[in-house]
Amino acid sequence: MSVRFSLLYVTVCLFVSQTAVAQSVNVAVTVDATTTGYRVNEDFVGFSMEQYTLSTGYWGRLGSFWTGGTNGNARLKNLLANISNHSVIRLGGFTADDRMVWQNAPRGTSTNVRATYSDDTDKFFTFLAEIGWKGIYTINLPINTPANAVSEATYIMNKYSAQLHSLSLGNEPYLYAGVFRSTGYTPDSCMIKDYLPMYDAIKAANPAIPISGLDCGARKYYGAMNQRWNDVYTNAINNSGSSRPLAALNVHSYGLGNNSNTLSRDAAADTLLNFNNAPLTFKASLLPYVTQLAQAKNTPLRFSETSSAATGTADTTNVSHTYVSALWALQYLYTLAASGVNGVNFHSSGSSVYSAIDWGPSASISAYKIAPIYYGILAFVDGAKNQRLLTVTPSGSTTSPRASYFATSSDDGKTLNITLINKDVANTISTTVTIPDVTISKASSQTLRPTTSRYDYAANTYYANAQVAANGTFTKGTPTPVSLTGSAGFAVSLAPMTATVVTVETSSQRMYTLKTGNWTDPAVWSGNRVPNSSDVLELKHTVTIPANSTVYGLRVVYATGIKLQYGQNAQLKLSL
Question: Where are the domains positioned within the chain?
């Protein structure tokens, strides 16, 4: 049998005091490659765009973001292909509600950019079909009627069901009070007067139309008010007893919220990197609450609108569009994946400073400019896409240094992933990584880095010694060899404010289970034979070792919730 190689990446996020004397900080990490957790699917990372992109090629200018300017949209297609072959673009934002009402007719000679015509929608879904992605499409809620929403929903479903992820009704309705509705607007009045009449009308026209929502979340803070909106919504619409199904629970979150302008630049950067924006209480309140709510309601959870700061063009700290946001995005994505979130859409609001993909300079139409955060996303998908999270010990530390650690594995155990992030502005990190029961043959690395400082812009940001080309494509440079510390470990040094993705190759034969059954049945195993002492095995199903049997393997990797069953006097011998 041929020997196959497996790749391994681990993510270590390191934080060191900004005021400490520069030094080399030692960190030791152990990865458990025997138990897999949540999977980072192909559609985990996507993007969110303002609904206004349907009618404009730049703010206020008639055109279409999705067809591009004078050079077409080839650059945009390549930018998305770098991230995924099959993911999700969400259309929404404030412009979905304060304009963009459906007209149910071709645009013709109309120059009204504050309305959605059928051929505007055609351009978006045609674009999705060309790149193999799907769309979350927002229908105007506060200045619309159920009948008009039905017209829009059925038009999209009848023509573009293959490209439709779901429809979302309205955007952040908790902000309607005093804008579209009276100051006494509540979650209950929203559901009774606005949301449910529109939802029910669409489902009555075609029950198969998928609807997601409520697209609420946190900007200035997260607390009882935000939870109340999601509670009321999911009590009425859920997949655990309600007659109204939910395609996904959509929530919003921004790392700095609207609070970046109250902080100094360095304080904003530290707040972003440490996930400690007190008014938002992201890790303490928002994330655990929405993940538990989605599980209780038996619905997928998607952060359908998110980025570093919800400040539009007014981020006076100059943090959200600098290299700092790239390091933040890398850890943020791992944090969401480890919590069981199904997908993340980075919001790009046209010309807002936090946009991962922008329209570009005001003199250009649809130039598809990128921000540094895009390079952080590239590093994440390189180390985590189509992988399962592994357990790392320790999981993190708050002092000396402040750190957090992540690791991933492919479904069949052939590929494991390692990423190391040093978020200190002065100290170098000397990291040793050990993976028990894994024999390493060689290791190499790629690095996410700025050119001069953590406040570098995209022009001075690199991943894998490469930058995005003019046509939007991205090709990694030659990886750097990494020193091994033995058969099951390696050592790597991280410069301040850099992230390194390490690829480790091992020389183990791999098999995985195809179905539930006895260990000794060859049909249970992907190799169509009974495993031997040189095989690394992944149990995706419940397997039983028959009574009075002794079976062999090199090591065993268990999928989440799977256990090995032993008959009387049965034994498993591992050749570790």
Answer: 5-40+388-507, 45-96+113-134+175-384, 509-574
45-96+113-134+175-384 CATH: 3.20.20.80
d(C-alpha 424, C-alpha 405), whole Å: 15
d(CA 92, CA 215) in angstroms, rounded, equals 9
Strand order in the sheet with 543-545: 517-518, 543-545, 564-566
Tokens 């050119």, residue located = 451
- For position 126, what pLDDT does the model report? 96
Query: 525 has which bridge partners?
Result: 513
CATH fold group of domain 5-40+388-507:
Immunoglobulin-like (2.60.40)
3-class SS string, 89-154? EEEECCHHHHCCEECCCCCCCCCCCCEECHHHHHHHHHHHHHHCCEEEEEECCCCCCHHHHHHHHH
Instruction: Evaluate the omega torsion of the peptide bond into residue 62 and state whether it is cis, within 30 degrees of 0.
Output: no
Q: How far apart are CA 175 and CA 194, in angstroms?
A: 14
Q: Residue 11's beta-bridge partner residues?
A: 406, 419
CB 210 within 8 A of CB 247: yes
Of how many residues is the chain composed?
576
- 3-class secondary structure, 333: helix
- Residues ≥6 apart with Cβ < 8 Å to 239: 245, 246, 297, 298, 299
Assess contact for 517 and 543: CB atoms under 8 A. yes
Q: Distance between alpha carbon 520 and the CA centroid of its chain, in Å?
A: 40
Give the E-state strand segments of 237-367 in sequence order: 249-254, 301-307, 343-348, 357-358
- Residue 421: beta bridge partners? 13, 499
Please give the Cα distance from 401 to 487 (Å, whole number). Answer: 27
CA of 259: how far to CAs of 271, 351, 467, in Å?
A: 10, 19, 31
pLDDT digits (tens, 9 = 90+) for 183-208: 999 999 999 999 999 999 999 999 99
Question: At 240, phi and psi to the nearest 5?
Answer: -130, 55
Kindly state the greatest CA–CA separation across the chain.
81
Angle between helices 196-205 and 146-160 (to 10 degrees): 40
- How confident is the model over 499-515, as pLDDT tens digits? 999 988 876 667 889 99
77 in Cβ contact with 472 (< 8 Å): yes
Are 10 and 334 in contact by the 8 Å Cβ rule? The answer is no
Amino acid at 392: V
Which residues are 343's β-sheet partners?
302
- Both structure tokens of 346: 């980075």
104: tokens are 């149910």
The single-letter code of the amino acid at 172 is: E
pLDDT band at 80 (very low <50, low <70, confident <90, very high): very high
DSSP-assigned letter for residue 564: E
Structure tokens at 174: 């908790």
Give the β-pairing of 402-409 and 387-393.
antiparallel
Contact between residue 544 and residue 518 where contact means Cβ atoms under 8 Å apart: yes
